[in-house]
Amino acid sequence: MFIEGSLLADYLLIGILVLVLASFIAGFLDAVAGGAGLILVPAFILTGMPPQLALGQEKLVSTLGTFSAIYNYFKGAKIIWKVVIYGIPTALIGAYIGGQVILSIDESIVGKIIFFLIPIGLLFSFIPKHSKNDGAYQPSQTDIFIILPLVCLVVGFYDGFFGPGTGSILILALHFLIRMPLLESSATSKIFNLASNIGAFTAFFIAGKMAFIIGIPMVLASIGGNYVGSHLTLKSGDKIIKPLIFTTIAILFISLGLRYIW
Fold first, then answer.
1. Smallest Cα–Cα separation from 89: which of 134, 149, 142, 38?
2. Helices 37-46 and 51-75: crossing angle, nearest 10°?
3. Top-confidence residue, 253 or 227
4. Which keywords does the record carry (predicted)?
5. 114 Cβ contact partners less than 8 Å away, ≥ 6 residues apart
6. CA-CA distances (angstroms) from residue 49 to 9, 57, 127, 162?
7. Per-residue pLDDT reduced to its tens digit, 195-236
8. Which of 31, 63, 168, 180 might form a disulfide with 174, Cβ 3.0–4.6 angstroms?
């Protein structure tokens, strides 16, 4: 009995260490180009979490981890604050609705949904994005009052329903739809991503789909990863980290396929 208990403790410790490492890598990736959930959600599921709990746990880790990236971008004065207030409410509402929808679906189906949505999040996360400054940004009234709220509502829903790749989708949407420079898009997207995370967090928290105690070391690791990733930025970290991240996601994706499809 003692040996079995000792082995169980060892497995639990190894599992937590793996999730802490995954949280750091996910935080780094999220700060650089978005896509923390591409690492976190499969990692949580493969260590035994039910799919809905894995989605809720990802919101817990990502929401708190994003603060350190926002801090660095705030110091760098790259957040476009004059547009922030117009996107936050719809990002919150969209994510809460998305969370409620995914929570209403049977967990056996949720696992399959996650498997098929991961390539979509992966696609958006690995579309090339560069941290150049494209000049002064002057949004139009249409950008502020119509396009931005709609973007945040739709992307917020996706974040609550699934999540991985949300940061990347926001960066690309801000750049191509309202013509914000890419560096500012990356920085400003963190505010909207935080808002959508909070909306989804609320839905999963009310449903009891979070494990706070084991989440503490993961949150700390995510904060560290976000801080390092945002500090290094795309220019210094993108070329080195993305091949490693792609390999990791490919392994996790294949593992999920073996679990839920085959």
1. 149
2. 150
3. 227
4. Cell membrane, Membrane, Transmembrane, Transmembrane helix, Transport
5. 41, 42, 45, 51, 54, 55, 162, 256, 260
6. 17, 9, 30, 15
7. 999 999 999 999 999 988 888 899 999 989 888 877 775 455
8. 180
CB count within 10 Å of CB 205 equals 16
H helix runs in 126-211, sequence order? 141-142, 148-161, 166-177, 182-206
Distances from the Cα of 200 to the Cαs of 14, 50, 93, 148, 196, in angstroms?
A: 29, 17, 9, 19, 6
Residues 6+ apart with CB under 8 A from 112: 260, 261
Residue 34 has pLDDT above 60, yes or no: yes
CA terminus-to-terminus distance, the chain: 35
Instruction: Extract the tokens encoding 103.
Output: 């929570």
For residue 70, which of 30, 37, 98, 114 has the smallest C-alpha distance? 30
CA atoms within 13 A on the CB side of 244: 10
Question: What's at 67, amino acid-wise?
Answer: F
Average pLDDT over residues 29-53: 81
Q: Rounded distance, CA 68 to CA 190, Å? A: 10
Structure tokens that stand for 52 in this block? 């809905």
Tokens 């949300």, residue located: 166
Tokens coding 15: 């599992």
Between residues 150 and 239, which one has the greater pLDDT?
150
AA identity, residue 161: F
Highest mean pLDDT among 82-91, 173-182, 241-250: 82-91
pTM of the model: 0.78
CA 52 distance to own-chain centroid? 15
